[in-house]
Amino acid sequence: MNQTQRGGEWVSLGWFTLAQGNAAKITLSDNADGTVLADAVKLVRNNSNDVDNEKKTFAHSYDANSNVTTQTLEGKTTTFN
Questions:
Q1: Fewer CB within 10 A of the end CB, N or C, for the chain?
Q2: DSSP letters spanning 31-67
Q3: Domain named Golvesin/Xly CBD-like: which ranges (predicted)?
Q4: CB atoms within 10 A of CB 62
């Protein structure tokens, strides 16, 4: 990656799968025509396939005076008078 051409921005070097519990390392080599330097490395987790087990469903109903008349949480409805 020649950062003299794209300095000041993050450049993706690819997608890599890391297994839970296994160590991983990033190596900077000297296979270049000049100075080799890395000022930062950013690892970003791809959690787009994770299931959201904490998601809750809420619903509320109100009367004309803005008073709550019903509240539904995870399919259980409570009525207020």
A1: C
A2: -SSS----S--------TT---TT---EEEEE-TTS-
A3: 2-45
A4: 10
